[in-house]
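Please review the protein record below. Let me know how this chain folds according to its tokens.
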Amino acid sequence: VTQPAVTPVVVTTVPAPRNWMIPAVLSCLCCFWPTGIFAIMFASKANTAAAQGNVEEANTHANYARTLIIVSLCVGIVVLMIAIIVNSISA
């Protein structure tokens, strides 16, 4: 009786993408909510894909979430600056 030989297996691990959920929620609450909502959606999709082991899809959704967070932050700053300028002119 012969037993099967042991074959070595190489397992490579890929780091999970960054979790953008907290910045997405903060950008939705504090900056510009329309893009913040989409940032939350993409951050959730990225977390789901990472939990399922689909790293490529997780990275794609995480990049979309990051982009939307940056857009939300920029639009929020611009709107705040316009509000300050309009308020100072009308006062």
About this structure: Residues 55-90 form the longest helix (36 residues). The CA atoms of residues 27 and 41 lie 13 Å apart. The helical segments are 21-30, 33-52, 55-90.
